[in-house]
Amino acid sequence: MKLKFGFNVVHKPVEEYFEYASEHNLTHLEIDLIKEHSFIETFDTKRINKLRGLSGKFGVTLSLHTPYTINPSDKIPMIRDANIAYLKRCILVAHKLNAMHVTTHLGNCNGLPSWTRMRQQALERLSTNFREVLKDCEKYKMKLALENVNPMPKDSEFFYLGDNIKDFEFLFSKLESPFLNLCLDVGHANTNEGPLVYIQKFSCKIINVHFHDNNGKYDDHFDVGKGNIPWEKVVDAFKKIKFFGPFISETFKAKPHESRGALLEYFDQLGNFA
Ligand SMILES: [Zn+2]
Questions:
Q1: Ligand 1 centre from 269 Cα, in Å?
Q2: Residue 124: which residues within 8 A CB-CB, separation 6 or more?
């Protein structure tokens, strides 16, 4: 089985990355939808057809990444509905693009740290809203990959859902669907419980991996090997669960092909990966 590497596309329109990607054995592009040139509305029939053509020509698969600003757990009905509609639109566009999956964050919440029930209430709302989105995932056979994030400081009045393992345990037990999966962000995991626990607990759920390094405290997006992530163990754990990718580079400094090379060295040390 061949390992699959790719990278997150943010700064320029995705059309401009295919050549570079295929030249460097990067066979997956995850399109971040946060900038104007990649707003979901820009994916009309013409653009979708062009992208399908490029994807076939260069042998590069695609996925979508919703902006980290969306909040599918929102309490206010009109805003909640807009978030659900947005996710459904992403699912439809991904289907038309013949994409592999849609990666999304779980949303956020505001409230004093002492209001301990707030997180649970937000998770309950989230699972109700995801149930609605999953109907479209089933209809279009499109997988949703929920991404874990880094926790805010303990006394923060703002927090993200999905910054710890329990949130995912709750959602995966509440919503048993083959279309609800995990995008493991190795760097984010390293700022809380660590990536190894995620890999062990959610071995069947992982369909996408984001990789970058840090020292366990901040979400630095360092190059591979510049922080304290135990990459040998991480790569070995992926080998054990037979996860072959996509491994999506999210390093800020190193270019995607350099990050691919850095991670590949750890794989090579293990010998025959398959
Ligand atoms: Zn990420």
A1: 25
A2: none
DSSP string, 210-258: EE-B--SSS---BPTTSSS--HHHHHHHHHHTT----EEE--SSS-HHH
Question: Could you tell me if 207 and 145 are in contact, meaning their C-beta atoms sit under 8 angstroms apart?
Answer: yes
d(CA 135, CA 133): 5
Single-letter amino acid, residue 93: V
Q: Which two tokens stand for residue 80?
A: 């909640």
Please classify residue 45 by burial: count the beta carbons closer than 10 Å to its beta carbon, then call 0-12 exposed, 13-18 middle and 19+ buried.
exposed
pLDDT at 2: 86
| pLDDT reported for residue 4 | 96
133 Cα: distance to centroid of ligand 1 (angstroms): 21
Class for the domain spanning 5-269: alpha beta
Residue ranges per domain, the chain?
5-269
The model's pTM is 0.94
CA 83 / ligand 1 centre spacing (Å): 20
Query: What is the DSSP secondary structure assignment for residue 59, as one 8-state letter?
Result: T
Distance, CA 229 to ligand 1 centroid (Å)? Answer: 15
